[in-house]
Amino acid sequence: MSDSLHDAGVQSFGLLSQTPTPNHFQLVETFANVKAFDAHVSAQHSVDFRTNTAPFLGAPYDERLYQFVGR
User: Fold this and answer.
1) Are 16 and 25 contacting, i.e. CB atoms less than 8 angstroms apart?
2) Which residue has the higher pLDDT, 67 or 33?
3) Quick one: how far is CA 34 from the chain centroid?
4) First-last CA distance in the chain
């Protein structure tokens, strides 16, 4: 994740885990715009992160995009 902090347009990262099951988690990321998001998800370090964490996931990687309402 440290490489991601240097990606242009990154605003924040947060890791949310469920208690008492820490293998259930969500990685919440915010970006300045869709261009910054697209650049981040296609960066080699992001691809490597997904590849390296896939064996530990109990379900397929689930990527969802949200936007703030009324902003």
Assistant:
1) yes
2) 33
3) 14
4) 28
Type of residue at 9: G
Model pLDDT for residues 20-58, shown as the tens digit of each residue: 877 778 889 999 999 999 999 999 999 998 899 888 777
Let me know if 9 is exposed, middle or buried by CB neighbors in 10 A (0-12, 13-18, 19+): middle
Residue 52's contacts (CB-CB under 8 Å, 6 or more residues apart) are none
Per the omega criterion (within 30 degrees of 0), is the bond before 20 cis?
yes
Bridge pairing between strands 10-17 and 25-31: antiparallel
Tokens of 19: 């208690």
Strands of 1-71 (E only): list them: 10-17, 25-31
HSE (CB half, 13 Å, CA atoms) of 54? Answer: 9
